[in-house]
Write a structure and sequence with these properties.
With about 400 residues, this protein is α/β, with parallel strands linked by helices. It is about 35% helix and about 20% strand. The longest helix has 22 residues. The radius of gyration is 20 Å and the shape is globular. The termini are far apart. The chain binds D-gluconic acid and magnesium ion (MG).
């Protein structure tokens, strides 16, 4: 089973996606996701210019060898562009191997360790009424755990709340705006720290103690501010507090950890196990937030999650709409197979995306399942994809009141 052709497909139904298609000499097709929000074309170029030519004629069964070859032979290691490109090749090879075996991928990874994957959805609102409505809608859809984001009095535009111009439906919240420039938002840490505990108090008293609640801080706090928020949220029993500091500095989490028992999740912007080295070894976190797509694929994620498992740290695989259905499916197969599954983020793609990517994964009564088709269970429809050419789109960024650029 040698690789005969490799093609990079860029398509923009709802948003931009970069997909790698590998075809073998015996006619099997494998898919990999290489989408890097706001920097999509860099990964497409990395693949087209530097990876595709190396793949032709290679034995598609040699997944570990191909991973090591792409990682080590580049000399320049790590980084989101490189690791997304390697991930796309790796996931496409796993898709091929599972198709060749006639099995859903999770079987090759050791088989199912559970019946389904508890997923959390994103509830948000500009005020309490809107937020409560959004939580109720998610409960009606079957979600059994919910991320809560809200507006903050004194801040005009906050992460995770309003759909940017173009008003996509609320449950399809998409932070990247189709425009030539990133949108500017504002930020006020003191206003945020005052407001969020009140929101969780209200949500708990309306929806009771059982419902797992999550919150994403999106890298905006210093360690001592994050420590305070974690402490203030303790009475509301969060499932996790996510990305509380930028975390390039892993030791920052030590300070947060010393002050609070609120569980900590981190890592959607990380791309190798090294970004977690101290965090895992010193047990400074509870959940690993990486995406298969941004962390070198299934081969690397499996090692990372096995390492985390030795420290009772669980998975919380990143699943926003900027992970394509191919990347989502890769995460779901891994989630089903590993022992230390925690929770799966599920933002739900829009109709146009679902027409381009035919999927076998299901969401039933709050639980995701990757399905039982051979391989990943996702096939890209190239004709449908061709109808949606690339459109420049960027994530927003924010500035403090005095104009200083802040973390997004
Ligand atoms: C999440 C994330 C996303 C990111 C987006 C960036 O927890 O799902 O924070 O909403 O902002 O994936 O590309
Ligand atoms: Mg996040």
């Amino acid at each position: 089973m040698n690789i005969a052709t490799a093609a990079v497909i860029v398509t923009s139904p709802d948003r931009n996606f970069v997909t790698l298609k590998l075809t073998t000499d015996d006619g099997l097709v494998g898919w990999g996701d290489a989408t890097l929000n706001g920097r999509e074309l860099s990964v497409a170029s990395y693949l087209n210019d530097h990876v595709v030519p190396l793949l032709i004629g290679r034995d598609a069964h040699r997944i570990e060898d191909t991973w090591q070859f792409l990682y080590r032979s580049a000399y320049w290691r790590r980084g989101p562009v490189t690791m997304a490109a390697i991930a796309a090749v790796d996931v496409a090879l796993w898709d091929l191997k599972a198709k060749a075996a006639g099995m859903p991928l999770y079987q090759l990874l050791g088989g199912a360790s559970r019946n389904g994957l508890m997923a959390y959805g994103h509830a948000s609102g500009r005020d309490q009424e809107e937020l409560f409505d959004s939580i109720r809608r998610h409960l009606e859809q079957g979600f059994r755990s919910i991320r809560v984001q809200t507006s903050v009095p004194g801040i005009d535009a906050v992460y995770g709340v309003r759909a940017p111009v173009g008003e996509v439906p609320e449950h399809h919240y998409e932070p990247a705006l189709r425009a030539a420039q990133p949108m500017e938002e504002d930020w006020d840490t003191r206003a945020y720290l005052r407001h969020i505990p009140k929101v969780f108090e209200a949500v708990r008293s309306e929806f009771g103690p059982e419902l797992p609640l999550l919150h994403d801080v999106h890298h905006r706090l210093t360690p001592i501010q994050a420590a305070r928020l974690g402490k203030d949220l303790e009475p509301y029993d969060l499932f996790w507090m996510e990305d509380c500091t930028p975390a390039e500095n892993q030791d920052a989490l030590r300070l947060v950890r010393q002050h609070t028992t609120t569980p900590l999740a981190i890592g959607e912007v990380f791309n190798t196990v090294w970004d977690y080295q101290t965090l895992i070894k010193d047990q400074l976190i509870d959940y690993v937030r990486s995406a298969v797509t941004h962390t070198g694929g299934i081969t690397a994620m499996r090692k990372l999650l096995d390492y985390a498992a030795q420290y009772q740290i669980k998975s919380g695989i990143h699943g926003p709409t900027d992970i394509s259905p191919v990347g989502m499916a890769a995460g779901l197969h891994l989630d089903l197979a590993i022992h230390n599954f925690g929770i799966q983020e599920y933002m739900q793609h829009g109709d146009a995306t679902n027409e381009v990517f035919r999927q076998s994964f299901t969401f039933d009564n709050g639980y995701l399942h990757p399905g039982n088709e051979p391989g990943l269970g996702v096939e890209l429809d190239e004709e449908a994809a061709a109808k949606h050419p690339y459109q420049p789109a960027y994530l927003p960024y924010n500035r403090l009141k005095d104009g200083t650029v802040h973390d997004w």
